[in-house]
Design the sequence.
């Protein structure tokens, strides 16, 4: 292949990736804006509310991320069927995805409702537990529509039509912000619900986004042709099993990674309200920037799956590397921002001029400096995992995640934080180590997997 031809293909793939990734990343960013605004409003309500809100938010976020990851198997399966021109198969995947969302949501909603008692058993301060439980019991009602929306989002994005997703999510975010203000602070004659009000606002927003995207799909002939909502009462064991086979490892991997961050949050809570509040500020900032490579990862899954469906492993390899490179470049820039202006970032959440917040501000700025170190690794690992999902390779990445996060990152963070005595900062260095290992091994796995595909076809 000549240099000019290679350059042309790379540029074409960058354009294809960005065409999908920009709306998807924008949609993810609008979703992160909701939790960002939640955290800002928690800061207005006080440092303890930020600490309690951190417990509630990470608990719900872990469970919704795991559920959404499982049903996200709809994306590579639809992309492959779409690339192969199998219209009926696309509809079957969507229907079984909705079945899976309901089956997952019922027990998890019950778990969220009773999770306050679990937080108490994990050694959290009683006052924080009471506040967190009120938040969780409100937002629990948004779990089912949250998973339903994840199914429909995966379906629409796999058909390379991400724009309606960002429109719906921006609308949901704006509604959530307004509802946060009204319900948390008691406007228009309504009672001030505080932290619980933020939970109710998020639950209502989830229902609204699910309904809006469903109505859009039913109103568009090019989407309605797949009959995703037809015969929903029919359970198809074979299709459901395939969806679960691909999705379960993705969900467990999300649980392994998210559980890593959640566990550290619980440990931070044992170190005190100040440490937990600083952790929430820094973590929420990292979550916002992470949404961009997450959107790129979703686009990479679609591109790789589509090209594999067209029997083009060389194109799939290029699509994977383009996605990984774009994510790494973006996260390099955010890491520089974290490093250079941590004080400005912290001031978005809390009054840095108030002497009562001085300890929280100082620790949050330090944690942002550590976060700057893992930005690149975080972008690479999530996009490499997305490329592997496009190959329907989900089981080995799960084992890689367990090793990187729990086998290496957590022990290192625990040792640095609690044994050596660096506290919250040491625990965050565990993030850096775990994400770096995951980034390297997942990228190697993508290269190795496609090399095996190429070799098997040549022989």
Sequence:
């Amino acid at each position: 292949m000549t240099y000019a031809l290679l350059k042309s293909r790379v540029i074409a793939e960058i354009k294809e990736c960005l065409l999908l990734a920009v709306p998807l990343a924008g949609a993810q960013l609008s979703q992160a804006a909701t939790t960002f605004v939640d955290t800002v409003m928690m800061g207005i309500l006080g440092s303890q509310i930020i600490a309690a809100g951190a417990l509630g938010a990470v608990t719900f976020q872990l469970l919704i991320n795991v559920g959404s990851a499982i049903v996200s198997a709809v994306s590579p399966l639809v992309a492959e069927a779409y690339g192969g021109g199998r219209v009926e198969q696309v509809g079957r995947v969507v229907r079984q995805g909705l079945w899976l969302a309901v089956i997952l949501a019922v027990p998890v909603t019950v778990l969220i409702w009773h999770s306050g008692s679990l937080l108490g058993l994990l050694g959290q301060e009683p006052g924080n537990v009471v506040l967190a439980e009120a938040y969780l019991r409100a937002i629990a009602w948004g779990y089912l529509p949250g998973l339903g929306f994840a199914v429909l989002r995966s379906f629409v994005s796999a058909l390379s039509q991400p724009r309606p997703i960002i429109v719906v999510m921006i609308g949901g975010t704006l509604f959530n912000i307004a509802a946060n203000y009204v319900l948390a602070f008691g406007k228009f004659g309504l009672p001030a619900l505080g932290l619980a009000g933020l939970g109710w606002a998020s639950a209502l927003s989830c229902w609204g986004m699910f309904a809006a995207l469903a109505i859009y799909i039913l109103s568009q002939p090019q989407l309605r042709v797949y009959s995703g909502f037809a015969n929903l009462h029919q359970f198809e064991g074979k299709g459901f099993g395939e969806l679960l086979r691909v999705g379960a490892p993705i969900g467990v991997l999300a649980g392994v990674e998210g559980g890593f961050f959640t566990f550290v949050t619980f440990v931070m809570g044992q170190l005190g309200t100040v440490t937990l509040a600083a952790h929430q500020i820094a973590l929420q900032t990292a979550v916002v920037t992470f949404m961009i490579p997450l959107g790129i990862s979703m686009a990479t899954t679609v591109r790789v799956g589509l090209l594999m469906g067209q029997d083009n492993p060389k194109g799939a390899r290029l699509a994977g590397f383009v996605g990984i490179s774009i994510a790494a470049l973006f996260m390099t820039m955010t890491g520089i921002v974290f490093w250079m202006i941590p004080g400005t970032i912290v001031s978005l959440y809390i009054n840095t001029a108030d002497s009562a917040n001085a300890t929280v501000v100082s620790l949050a700025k330090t944690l942002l400096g550590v976060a700057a170190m893992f930005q690149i690794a975080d972008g690479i690992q999530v996009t490499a995992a997305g490329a592997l999902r496009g190959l329907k390779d989900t089981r080995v990445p799960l084992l890689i995640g367990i090793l990187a996060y729990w086998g290496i990152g957590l022990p290192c963070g625990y040792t640095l934080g609690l044994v050596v005595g660096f506290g919250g900062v040491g625990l965050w260095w565990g993030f850096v180590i775990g994400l770096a290992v995951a980034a390297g091994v997942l990228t190697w796995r993508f290269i190795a997997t496609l090399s095996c595909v190429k070799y098997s076809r040549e022989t």
Notes: The radius of gyration is 22 Å. The chain is about 85% helix and 0% strand. The chain has one domain: 3-454.
